[in-house]
Every structure is written in structure tokens, then in C-alpha cells.
Amino acid sequence: MSGSTFGELFRVTNFGESHGPAIGCVIDGCPPNLELSEADIQPELDRRRPGTSRHVTQRNEPDSVEILSGVYEGKTTGAPICLLIRNTDQRSKDYGNIVQTFRPGHADYTYWHKYGIRDPRGGGRSSARLTAPMVAAGAVARKWLGERHGISIRGCMTALGSVEIPIEDWSEVHNNPFFAATANGIDALEAAMDALRKSGDSVGARLYVEASGLPVGWGAPLFDKLDADIAYAMMGINAVKGVEIGAGFKAVQQRGSEHGDELTLEGFMSNQSGGVLGGISTGQDLRVNVAIKPTSSIRVPRRSIDLQGQAATVETFGRHDPCVGIRATPIVEAMLALVLIDHAMLHRAQCADVEVFTPAIPAGLG
Amino acid sequence: MSGSTFGELFRVTNFGESHGPAIGCVIDGCPPNLELSEADIQPELDRRRPGTSRHVTQRNEPDSVEILSGVYEGKTTGAPICLLIRNTDQRSKDYGNIVQTFRPGHADYTYWHKYGIRDPRGGGRSSARLTAPMVAAGAVARKWLGERHGISIRGCMTALGSVEIPIEDWSEVHNNPFFAATANGIDALEAAMDALRKSGDSVGARLYVEASGLPVGWGAPLFDKLDADIAYAMMGINAVKGVEIGAGFKAVQQRGSEHGDELTLEGFMSNQSGGVLGGISTGQDLRVNVAIKPTSSIRVPRRSIDLQGQAATVETFGRHDPCVGIRATPIVEAMLALVLIDHAMLHRAQCADVEVFTPAIPAGLG
Amino acid sequence: MSGSTFGELFRVTNFGESHGPAIGCVIDGCPPNLELSEADIQPELDRRRPGTSRHVTQRNEPDSVEILSGVYEGKTTGAPICLLIRNTDQRSKDYGNIVQTFRPGHADYTYWHKYGIRDPRGGGRSSARLTAPMVAAGAVARKWLGERHGISIRGCMTALGSVEIPIEDWSEVHNNPFFAATANGIDALEAAMDALRKSGDSVGARLYVEASGLPVGWGAPLFDKLDADIAYAMMGINAVKGVEIGAGFKAVQQRGSEHGDELTLEGFMSNQSGGVLGGISTGQDLRVNVAIKPTSSIRVPRRSIDLQGQAATVETFGRHDPCVGIRATPIVEAMLALVLIDHAMLHRAQCADVEVFTPAIPAGLG
Amino acid sequence: MSGSTFGELFRVTNFGESHGPAIGCVIDGCPPNLELSEADIQPELDRRRPGTSRHVTQRNEPDSVEILSGVYEGKTTGAPICLLIRNTDQRSKDYGNIVQTFRPGHADYTYWHKYGIRDPRGGGRSSARLTAPMVAAGAVARKWLGERHGISIRGCMTALGSVEIPIEDWSEVHNNPFFAATANGIDALEAAMDALRKSGDSVGARLYVEASGLPVGWGAPLFDKLDADIAYAMMGINAVKGVEIGAGFKAVQQRGSEHGDELTLEGFMSNQSGGVLGGISTGQDLRVNVAIKPTSSIRVPRRSIDLQGQAATVETFGRHDPCVGIRATPIVEAMLALVLIDHAMLHRAQCADVEVFTPAIPAGLG
């Protein structure tokens, strides 16, 4: 409702600004007796953090997470878990030149008109830096989903601007700075990024994320559909402009005889649905595509207006990501985990004692 | 949370099944003193109802709405508004042959495993018929948005299967059974539908919906973003598999210098953002695309399993829509209205007394 | 949030006005596979309905409940359950003389100023008649609590005005019109009510309600405490002005050595806590007292103002309850049931897999 | 839902344990442009903090609050406000002797059975220390309520055990350690507390809290009644066992002609309602009584059981409050403020444009 809490039963409340003293979140509703320490969370933050390659912002921020509450002798207690990440590199002078103007494609303008005030330092509240606490919370969710349900989540980049990136080898995802699931064509991506950075412009990206190991039956009809909640979660990530489940926009041109996944005793024969029917999981892999727009802070001069309502030209200097999509894979994974844990808990609330005598078929083709 | 309530401040709780005694909804939180009668709602229901052309299900259902509460002497009182639609055409025998099996692409299978029980008559709770109460609630929201804020909402079909339908003339939308915003090519659409119906198969569609007249500032950062809530609303509609805001998936290939909408004293110079920046409205038109999958109930035989876990073949007879997208335009319009009224009220709650001294620029290019 | 929905996981949305076409509620989140028919609900409504003795309003209303959705072949499906009660006796002329004035002690005045409009017929939305749908929803909750957890709930009147009514024999509760748990002193209560009715005045009452059979562990620390939710539920009933859990206001004068319930292997040695510690159930009986104010609609003339802001005298004629507390026992029972089912479901969501090796002690002294 | 968030529009999420690294809260939804610094919050924390007299726990904790987010250049931005209070005095050895047993009247037992784990250090999550973040959040709410609406809130102790404390002079509240609104009888209270402390026992208390300056019309019918939300807020405070609004339990014995507050052009002639009719504010003073039980941690030996399920004797040593009610006045004030700001915002959401032509009468007798 008030905008900073995600989830209903596993609730994550996010706080902080890019250049304030700290960012973080409070997780309320985490089940008790989950083994948890900073070491479970830090690796996920490290995957997202800036400064890891020449293609992302050179802001130097270790993003060290501290657990302030909710864990006793290495286990969650059921009490809220506060995760704190101190901001250490707050060179707000970098942003001095944009305080008086509104960047095209940036939330500057809308924040100003909504609140009558904005924290302009590094984008303030609208900074992609605020995804870090979600990655941290997602790490807690992933641990629980993995240990209790055997669910795993993985994502990769499938397009960098107009360069399509095939999914060929998931083991390669961490061997390149792009989260590409292939060893082929990485040089071309590096070259494209170098040229882009030199030009002062930015570019969009497309990501793919999937979850495996789900049971049949998570989700809800009508408004808390699993796919609707995924769309909400993904579209809520900075810079996301489109979301697809399964066949997505390809479904427009499909026939029903092509789109409807046949069931056999060996499992589903295809996965056009993306693992969701009627808002409820089928047991197949969940499949999601996400479109990410190009960064709005670029060096190319653009027309805009200033706080006095006068015409102005905006050029952004300082540290920026020429493609925000590059660091977004850990974020889409985390958000998917947060949707799933909430639905896992909701399912237990309503249907803990449901017994189905017809066994579910195997998942079949992912 | 429990799946049948949409919205936070203007809350719509939906109830009913396709072949039960009635469907309907309760709207809680509607502002008082809005003039309202059934005559404000019925026309929207009539646009969505079945039987209006040969291309949609021939179920004969008048969908007459009755206001049971919340209105006194023609005005809303602030109390909950119950809208009731009696089901009159409940030929459940049409569905007799599918009670024992699971239709490929249909929620039969997931409902069964989630709840251990399902109402199979006409799809029960998973029927698209349950969008009717949302169209009714949306009519109330649209009236308030129009009268208090001058906001108008309109939608159309932009693709029927592989046939692209250009937006050429909004005044044509109600002159053809497809909600096409053009007078051209309707014959081809009719022919395509006739061939499709004869083949026993179904096809997907793409819809476009927009809202005009929004102020700058509705929405919220992080999780109750206007665009995230729109994605949630749209993906929650039966059969929707993809949602785009503004440039959508085109943003993947755009440069920042192309995507970021420049601001001038005459307004924005483009609308790649689709009217939302940082989750908050820019004052430009809101622009949304929606992908709708082909109907799962088709006459073409498909492989499946039955309630005893045995292999089976499924063919669906009886009344069905070969393209559920055809009747979906009033639904996407209604859901957009429901998102907007909620954000209008939320904005008043938090920011009722914000004064911004820099005037907003004109909306510019929609 | 918007005021007409109670509960988070077992959500009851109430609608209707005293003299509109119908009142009712939608229950969302009810677990599936619960056997349910109107016959499970009607008896509870009959206990609350008017016209059952000369001491309550003579409005003649059968309060017949109809299940409109959510039940298939006699079992709940997990889909929302709409319960409808048509208003049949709408003699709004009875209230004609109060449309222009504000009754002292009545919500007339506050509704008028909040909404700028009110439905004055029979109290409109503020009528105690709106507790009927809660009694109906409570019947569903009680059935589930009884069948799944062996929980029983019972209430009685413990004071009618200044007449204290001892709890001596629970089997007598339904043998008198007052829900008194005793066979003694009923004549005196009858006489007191007759005198009161003749005087044209009204009187308050105190009720007691308890739940037995709870497990240890339902509830939550801090804000969703079981006792806080009970206080919320009870204070939300029309005319309630005070709520006590366990020792209640007696705890003010108690010593810690008296109030703290000792634990032994035979169970708790007392129940000052009323069955809740730290917001979580102890396994003992839940014990709640509720204070109900005298009816505001009385024949005794009172000073007030009218809609034109002029001084006026108000006398209420027509059908009224001289003690609203008389019919309130089924209501407090129902609200307690609604709190408990919500916490039962919440507990499953978060703690479904908690194993405690130290066994709980027996409940001991209720 | 998950227990640690209070409020719907002005949402306060509380985190921390008594002896963990820190406690605090995140306020989401605070209106923008409110001037705010630590200096606005610290005085309220100082009123509640331990060690201020010999009658309260001698734990030495400065309770210094740090604003981590949501404030820019001295003003709130509309973004979430994280308030952090580091725990500095964590002498958990004081509690070593109670780790293995369950204190009578304490949440030890219920936490253990709910979660299968508990943080026993200083009561962990169930410690009254967790009210400090609520006092801090309440300070923000009070500032806004005062500046925007001229609302003031004040509370006092009206009974310490069996000693009644009259309200005679509000200016005396801070001149004694008991928050007594009188200069008379303080010596007797001091003596009673000294004797109590020597005895190793504890005692209950009754508090009164009121709010002045409310407009007519805040609140909502049915379930989000202003008084129901107050009851919820108060009963959620540690150790509270009873709540009254206005006449409270006295209403049981009142006649309608006594209880119903007459209206005249000079205002209400009495305030039996406590400022709420039908769940909505009347414009009169809000009046609330709260019963607080005696501290459960006492030196007097009590029977209990231990973690192995064996009989045990419990005596609590270390620092404790012999009457938790003594420090609770700032807490009840804070919780009342949090209820009011939420309703203020909710009222704007639904009724921002209501115009009432009949002017409200003056508040009249508080």
C-alpha cells in the first residue's frame, strides 16, 4: 500500500537512499529454525554489486550486510530480520550538476511533482541501489525454498541491445560479466559495451529467469495469481518495461492446439504456459522474460527543463551503468524467490490439509 | 492475499462461479456522493457479454446488474457497493464430457491439485465469466475518474493471431465485433475467424489500452509502482501471458538517447515511457500492451489424463470463444480504471497537501 | 483498510444496509473440502434474529441465508463464499421522524459529517442488523474450528444493567431470552426489562465469551497478538465500549504473584491471563468480557440539533431493542470464531513445520 | 498480518530484540515535507527510557535514535524513515537463570511452543523494550498531527495497584516518576513502590490517555472503527489486559438517557461516548482507559516447569520494573497517535472532497 513493503506473509520492507547513511530491509514473517548468517546472503549481494567489471558503474561499494535482528544462535526465530547495508561511497558531488534539472527518462520529474521534494543524491530513493536489500531478502527466501522444497532459481541475459544471446550452457553464467549462459560471443558483447561506453549512450537488455522444482498447486485464482504476482514483482524492478510468462507475446500468434500443453503419463509434453495455469503452478518450470530499458543517465546531451521551469540541456557525468540490465540478473532471481516463498506460505495457510488422490504427473518437459 | 480482492483503498471483492446461482462483487471504499445507478454500469457489461456476434460464445446471458447496497437516493454513501449478476443460462450438461479429464492449457489440473476439489461446471471459478464483475466495478471507477479528474480510458485489439490491426480511427472501435480501431480489414478478420471456428481451433490476440488526462504524480516508488500494479492487474486477467508499458520489449534494443523522453516547455517530445517514470505518472498517456493466449477449450483432440490418472483424449464441445481476446477489451479497460482509482486515493492519502511551485509541463506527445 | 473487511486469511467482507434490498458477506480464503450448507448457518442467525421475545425489537425478519458461491456438491471449494440475506421487513416509515435530526449517542451525526450523506433508514449502514452477516460467517468458522481442532466457543450475559448474572449452568443459556447461564433470577430480569420498556429508556449489558480446546501457539507477538485482535473484533461490534482479556481491569490491583499463572505438570494452576501470554495462546480457555452500552434510540425526549443546525428534540418511536446486549451473545461468539480461524491459518503459514520437543502441559484450570 | 507492522497508510514495521545489536522501526507512508530531526524524537524516548527513577529497571540505556533514511535536508521526503536505536547495555548474564524455565505470566512458554526456538536474552522479542521504536514512531505522528491538525495527546496514570490517582493537574505529570496528574499523594506512591520492591513482588496499573482537537469524521464504520483500532493498538502493548473507550464498563449500568450525549448549539453536553460514535470521531476528546497487569518477572518464588518438562521453581533476579505501568504512559500516547495519523490519511483518501453544509457544533464538554 505505502509502497515499500513487498509480500504478504513473507513481508520485506525496504528503506534507504542511494547516498544516505544506509540502505536495508526488514523481513517479517520468516519461518523459524532456518539456519541463517551473513554468509548466506553476502554472495548474492556480491553478484549484484557495482565495480565488478569495466561495464558497470565504478562506484566502489562493498555492500556488506549486517543482520541486526531475528536470528539467535545461527537460526531464525520467527521474529523480524533486519538486514542493514551501510553506504560507504557517497560521492554526491558527482551528481551536483543534475540537481537543478530533470533527466529525460528519469524519475526526477515525477518525484518532484508527487512529493514536492526529492533527495537528488545519486537518484535518492529511485536509485537501482535499492534493489540490493531485495537481493539480500531474496537470498533468505532462496535458502528456505531450496532446503524445504528443493526449488532452485536461475537467470541469465538473453539480449544486450540488439545482440541476441542464446541459452547454451548454464554453467557459463558466472564466467562472464553479462550473466550470459554461453561461452560464445562474449568478445562481441565486450566490444559492443566498450563502443557504447565511449559513445556516452546506453542500451536495454532482456533477461530470462526460471524456477525449477515447484509442486503443483501454488498460487491462487483471480487476483493473487502466481503469474500476476510475478508480473508485479518484475515490473517493480527499476527500468523494467515488459514481462512475459511462458510463451508471452508469442501466444498472440499461436493456435490453441499449439499453446495448450498436452498431458501424458510421462508429464507435460511442452511448456508454453511457463509453468502456470489459472494462476496456479503446474509443477513445470516457471519461465519468465523481462525487458529492461536503457539507463536514463547518459552523457549524450538531451533537452529538458529545470526547477525554475526554464528550458535546459542535461548531460550526466559521473559513475553510471551504460546497461542496467547487466547487473539485474541477481535481482530478477531474488524477486522471483520472494514471490514463491509468499505463495508457499499462503498455500500452507489455506490448503495445508488437502489430500489429492490422483497423483500429479511428472513435470515433463521443463 | 486470499485471491479475490483487488485494490487497497478502492477494494473490489469478486465472488461466484460460471454456473452457480450468481456472480458479483463488493466494492469497498468508493468515495461518497458519486451519482450512480445500474444505468451507469450496464452498458459496460453489455460490451463484454457473450452472444453479441457469431465470433464469440453463444451462451445467452443478459448479465443484468443489480445494486444491492451502498447507494441511497441515487448517490454512493461511502458504504460498500454490492453488485449482483444472476446467472441465467447454466447449461452445465455442455461440459459433462470434461468433468473426468484435464483440458490441456486449462486450470482444471492445477485447481484439482491445489484444492482437492473443483467446480467443473463451465470452468467454475476459473471461467472468464468472472471478469464481468470487474467490468462492472470498473464502470464505477471510470465514472469517478472521469467526473473528478477528466480521465478517459480506451482500448482496442491490435492483433488477432498473426493479423496485425493498425490503430487508425478510434471512432470505429464499436463498429465491428473485434474492437478494432479501424474500418479497414474487418472483412479479413471475419473470414479468419470463420475459418478458425470451422477448424475447431483457437487463436491468441494482442490488445492495447491507454488512459488520458492523468495528473503528474500518481503512483509510488519501489513496490506499488503504477506500472507494477498495471502489470499485476493485466496478468491477472484470464489468458494474459505478457504485459508491456510504453516501449515494452522494444526497449531492449533502444539506446538511452532514443528511449528517454525529452522535456521541453511544450511538453514531452515522445512517450517511450508509456506515461510512467520511477513508478509515478508523468501526465502523459498511460500506454499498455497485453498478450492474450488462445482459448484452451477447443474441438481439436488433445492428449491428456483423467481423474483416475489414466491417459485420455480431450475434445471440448459446447459453447466457446475461439478467441477470448475478442471480448477482452472492456476488461483491460476496467482493470486499468481500477488501478488508477486506487492510486488516486492513495495519492490523496499521502500527498493531499503537497504544493509544487514548478508547474508541470503540458503532457506533450501522448 | 476500507472498513468492511474483517480478517487477513479468512477474510469476511460485509455489505448492506438495514433497509436496503439485502445484507450479506463474502468469505474469501475459506479452506476447501469443508462440508457446508445453509443448514450449518441458519441456526446461528436464528439465535440472533429479532422478534424472538418481547424484550427485543419486534421487527419481523426471518433472516434466511442463501449461499451464492464457493460451495459445490455440499463442500467448500476454496473459492469465495457469498452469503446473502434478503431484507424483507423494511418499514422505513418508522424512522421518518429521525431523518432530520441527530440522535444523541447515535452515529447519525458522525456519518453525516464524514460522508456528507447518510442512509437514514433504520440506521442504514450503522444498524446492528449488519452483525447478521458476521454471525453467518462466524458459523462457517466455528464449523471448521470444531471439526479440525476440536475448538468450542460459548458466551453468555453476565450483567443486565445493574443486575449481575452469575455463570452457574451453561446448559441454561438457551432456556431464557437473555443468554443467561443460570436458571435463577430470570423472573427478575424479565421484570426489569418490562419496566425498562415501559419507561421508554434503555440499558447496557456485560457479556462473557470463551473458547476451549485451543492449541498452544496461535497468535503473534507485537501487533497481531491474539488478544489485540480479539479487542479489535469486540470493540468493532456496535455499542461495545470496553473489552477485557482474562483478569482485565482486575489486573490493575493484582500482585504479580497473584496474576502470573503457575505452571505444573498437571497444567496451569489458574487462568488470570485469559489464555494468552505475549499475544500467543497458552492452550487454556480464552476468556473475554465485553461492555455494551445502552441503545441510543429511546423514547425519552433528548436535546439535539437538526440538519439545518437548529436546536431540536428527539424521541425515537418504532421498533427498537431496549437492551442491544440481549441479542449480542451470538455476535461476540461469532467474532471470536473469526479471530481464531484467521490465527489458525496464519500459524500454519509461518509455523507449519515447527516441532517442539518439550510437550505442552495440559491446559489445567480453564 | 505477520505481526510486526502497525498501521495501513502510516505503516510502522518494528524490529529487534532486547539484547540483540539494535532495535528500531521503519515508517512507510509518512507524508512529505514534515520538518524532522532526531531532536523531535529523542525527548519522547527519554520519557520512556529505563533508569530514570529508583522505581523502574536500572538498565542503563541511553536509547539514542538515529534517522537512517527518509529525511533530506531536515524534511521528510515521502520515502520510508528508518529509526535505529542501538542496544548498548546487554548484560544478558542477568537472565541466565531463566533460560531453562518458563516464568509464570510470561511469554516464554508460548514463544517456545509457537516457534520451537526463542531468544531468551532479556525477553528477546517479547521484551517491553520493543515499545521504544513505537514511541519513536509515535513522536513523528504526533508532530504531524499537531502541526497539520492542532491535535494534542496526553496521558497519565490513574491507579497504581489499589491506589487510585485522581486527575487534578495535568501540569504535574512530569514532576513525578509516575506520570500522575496531581501533586498530591506522590509520597504515598513512592512508599508503596519502595515496599513493593522490597517484597520482590510487582503490581498492576491503570492509565488514561486522551486526544484533543480532532475533527468530526475520522474513522470508519464496521471494522476499521476508530475505537476498534484504538482497542487493537492498546491491547497490543505488552501487559495490557483491558481497554475502555469513554464510559467503558460503566456503560453496562447506564441508562440510554444517561449515556447518550445530548447535542446543543453550544456543543455536546457530556462525553460518555469518549469521542466516538459508530466508529467515527465526534470532534470531542477521545478518552481511553487501559489496564496493565503486574510484571511477570518477580523475585517471589513460583512453581513452573523447565525445558525438559520437569517441575521447577522460578525466581527472577536482575533488573526489572516492579510496575511496568510506570513507564507506559508515553507508550499509550504514542500508540494513540499512530492510530490517529492512519485514520487522518485514510479519511483524506476516501473523503477528501466531502463538503458538509451543516456545520459541526463545537466540541462542547470534552
From TrEMBL, chains A, B, C, D:
Keywords on record: Amino-acid biosynthesis, Aromatic amino acid biosynthesis, FAD, Flavoprotein, FMN, Lyase, NADP
Cofactor note: Reduced FMN (FMNH(2)).
Swiss-Prot/TrEMBL cofactor(s): FMNH2
Broad enzyme group: lyase
A GO term, aspect molecular function: chorismate synthase activity
Pathway(s) per entry: Metabolic intermediate biosynthesis; chorismate biosynthesis; chorismate from D-erythrose 4-phosphate and phosphoenolpyruvate: step 7/7
Enzyme Commission code: 4.2.3.5
Gene3D superfamilies from the UniProt entry: Chorismate synthase AroC (3.60.150.10)
Pfam families: Chorismate_synt
Reaction catalysis annotation: 5-O-(1-carboxyvinyl)-3-phosphoshikimate = chorismate + phosphate
Record: residues binding FMN: R125, S126, S127, N238, A239, G278, K293, P294, T295, S296, S297, R319
Cross-referenced NCBIfam families: aroC, PRK05382.1
Subunit field text: Homotetramer.
Family to which the UniProt record says this protein belongs: Belongs to the chorismate synthase family.
Name of the molecule in the record: Chorismate synthase
Organism: Ideonella paludis
